[in-house]
Amino acid sequence: MEPVTERDLRASFVNCSRGEARRLALPRDFADLPWDDLDFLGWRDPRAPERAYLVADRGGHPTGIALRAASGASRGFTARSMCSLCLTTRTGGAVSLMTARRTGGAGRQGDSVGRYLCGDLDCSLYVRGRKQSVASGELEETLSVEDKVARIRVNLDAFLDTVTR
Predict the structure, then answer these.
(1) What are the tens digits of pLDDT across the range 35-62?
(2) Contact 51, 45 (CB under 8 A)
């Protein structure tokens, strides 16, 4: 992913108001992000952990969506869940159901779409081996890193398409 300025990042959000985008908390390490290793920028709001944000490069410009993580009891430490973007399994509640309000009239009427995503939204780092799951719940795959990266991008585009149509 190409580096994004704070101004461009805030302007990229398509499913929330300008005021909401202006008030959102940036990632703690925004100045030091490993942009070359990111297929998208995703983070949880440190002030409100049920809020999350995802920004991806689409058509040469950033597109951001605001997400809500489902609240409730987390699954047991040994239960496995699969992220719908990177298709890796995690244990210990490290995958969360996240919903995004749809854009346009559908979103104004309350329509939303949801996906199970890595709770920390670090899919890019997991598939590249730059970050390891605390619970060590990954299953071995025969795909190359390049193929896993391509898979994330296809799955991410499909998710963003459902939010923006």
Answers:
(1) 999 999 999 998 888 999 999 999 899 9
(2) yes
